[in-house]
Amino acid sequence: MTTVPRPVRPSRAVEAQEGVKDLIVRRGLVAGDPLPTESELMEELQVSRNSIREALKALQAVGIVDIRHGFGMFVGRMSLAGLVNELTFHSRITLQNGKNHLANLIEIREILESGLVERLIELDPAADLTPVADVIVRMETEAEAGPVSPETDRLFHDLLYRPLGNPLVGQLLGAFWDVYYQLRDQLGAPDESPDDVVKRHRDIYTAVLAGDRAAAVAAVDDHFKGVRNRVGRISG
Fold first, then answer.
1. Does domain 81-233 have CATH number 1.20.120.530?
2. 103 pLDDT higher than 90
């Protein structure tokens, strides 16, 4: 007779995590709202102080709970910091093992941005891209003196897709950017000149402004060629 293994019961700390999340949902709490105290959570969830503290620490690590010492506990604001740290760590490990998971991340980001520029062109009425034009001017100024700063490059992509009204877009692209930037020492110097960097961003902006979907997707592909080349060098 085959013995069916019993399902493993989650630990009390894991149950406490789910209890806190369920409490947030049931009470309709949103980011920034105060949470009950440790003692109140212990009473409501019927778990020990150690389990509550372990649960809160785990929820804080993923941004669900914000613990402000001296002020209390609050519902956290969504953050992808944990994802960034994990992706950066594993990308660094795979680079040491002769693999290149960073290239996979870049591919995902390129696919995402190719779809986003098409979605941006579909907006009706057309999006106001004046802030993006201002960033390109800033890029041109920086390129005259040296390389375009990472902050300006990141700002371009953030502002370009902001009219879509989807806050997750900025957070996801920001997470990919953070991983890429944290591995900059392994990547080495970029292949493109500052002027090339400006041109590739300007081409994306111009195509979107003109409503030319094919040109916009092609411009995104051209922009990522430099990134792919830079990442490809470290995979040998």
1. yes
2. no
